[in-house]
Structures are given as structure tokens and as C-alpha cells.
Amino acid sequence: MALKITDECIVCSACISECPNNAIYEAGTEWAMADGTSLHGQITLHDGTATDAGSLHSPLSNDYYYIVPDKCTECQGFHEEPQCATVCPVDCCVPDEMYQETVAALLEKKEKLHV
Ligand code: SF4
Fold it and tell me: Ligand 1 centre from 15 Cα, in Å?
């Protein structure tokens, strides 16, 4: 499953550079599927929304760093452990129960993000 950042985030920025998928954004920053991935052209998000990979979307949080579920692979294919959770000093990067995914699905997602 994707990870999420809870409201215990102290906005230290330790996690943001660790993400291999550029799935983590600063509070109030717009996000795009194309950021840090090889995606381009029309794609479909997990909720069925069709979008251009380069389209900017509204921030998921205006208060804390946030993780885009469509881009989080739990670091599968890159690292043994979710890197954001490993480096977070207050342990606020936690599994997001809203996004249950198998390892196989996470690896497939990773392949789509980095063709
Ligand atoms: Fe990025 Fe890995 Fe954290 Fe997901 S678990 S947000 S892929 S660093």
C-alpha cells in the first residue's frame, strides 16, 4: 500500500529527497505524475481519472509534506524498506490503509512510472 504522512510531520524535509518516485511534495505545492518519472501523455489515475502526466494537480496538504498515492510504490524495486519511513525522525510516514496494494501491484506500478 502507499504510505501517507500524518499530522505529526514536523516539516523537516528529511524524506523528500529519499523518494525514488518523487511522490513526496512540500505543503501547498502542486504535483504531477511526470515529476521525477518517465511518464508522459495521457494516463489514468487509480481512481479512474484521465489526465496528462504533466498536468498539475492541487496539493493534497497545505500544512505538511504529503505523498501522492499514485506515485508511491513503498519503494518496491528500489529499496528493501520504505525510505521515507526509514529517515523520518518522528515516524510520521506510515502505511495508508486507503491504498491496499500487493507487492506485485507495487512492482507493476514502479515499472509504469519508470519505463
Ligand atoms: Fe516514496 Fe518510498 Fe516513501 Fe513511497 S515509501 S513515498 S516510494 S520514499
Answer: 8
CA distance 105 to 1: 9
Check pocket membership of 32 for ligand 1, CB cut-off 6 A. no
- Give φ, ψ of 79 to 5 degrees: -140, 160
User: What is the rounded average pLDDT of the residues 10-17?
Assistant: 96
- Taking the centre of ligand 1 as the mean of its atom positions, its distance from the CA of residue 21, in whole angstroms, is 7
Question: Is 0.70 topped by the overall pTM?
Answer: yes
Residues 114 and 38 sit within 8 Å (Cβ to Cβ)? yes
Structural fold of domain 1-115: Alpha-Beta Plaits (3.30.70)
